[in-house]
Structures are given as structure tokens and as C-alpha cells.
Amino acid sequence: MSRTNKLLQLYAFESDKNAWKNQQVFLLDIPPVWQDFIRQFYNGVKSPFVIWPLGKKLQSIFPQIVSVNNQFYLDETRPWLIATQPVPVDMIVMLAKGWMNQIAAGQGGSAPADVETSTVGWRSETVDSVLQRYPKLVYELLCLLLSRITFA
Description:
Elements: E1 2-4, E2 7-9, H1 17-20, E3 24-28, H2 32-39, H3 52-61, E4 65-68, E5 81-83, H4 89-107, E6 123-126, H5 127-133, H6 138-146
Antiparallel strand pairs: 1-2, 3-5, 3-6, 4-5
């Protein structure tokens, strides 16, 4: 898109699906204990606190994380995090635990049980397989990946 003499010109660039469909991405599911912790505060309509600050914090520290499912407490099948490279799980657990402790203190609840880092792990899949299983991610994931992946 460019501005030329106060006119807006739109450009479209064709994408070769074969260029990105075999790229590897890494997925991390939310531990069920954390999902249950957030669900205890959810009233069926909305949560009394915002979820997205945790995802934004993780993405600011780990730029490899390209997608965060901020509605993980509603959608059990979609992965919580998608990254171009795996990031240290123990760091994610530590940051998420701190965030949840703040939520628990603010809501007058108890913090979730500790999560054993050995039970939480990244799994690798191709972009194509991820999009086949989660077709709603096509518009979000492709834009984010194409801005970060370098093709050989």
C-alpha cells in the first residue's frame, strides 16, 4: 500500500503455499491446572480480569512466540502458544505462575498448584498440519509467521 498524490494504491502479493506449508512451528498447550484456575473466575460471559497481559508479556520477552490463545479457558483444543522456535518452558512456567499469583491475590482466591515443568513441553508440527486442524488460525498465523520466518 502506498500514497501517491493523495491516492491510496493497494498492492497484493501472491504467496506460494508450498513456500511455507512445510515450515515447522512449535505448539505449547496450557496445563489443565491453569485452565481450571482461570475457569473458576469465569462467569459464563466474561472474566473479571483481562487475560491478554500474560500473552503480551511472554511475547515481549520471547519474540519467537507468534500466537497466543487468550481464550484458552474456553477452547480446550487450540494450543495456548505457537512459536517459531521453542522457548524455555521453565521461564514460561515461572512468568505464568507469577501472573496467576497476582490474579489469585486480587480475586481473593488461592493460587493454582505448582506445575511440574517436565509435564509441559513444546511439540513440533508443520504449518500445514496446524492450519488443517485449526482453520480459524489461517488469517492470524500466516501473517505472523511470514513476518518472522526466513525461507532457505
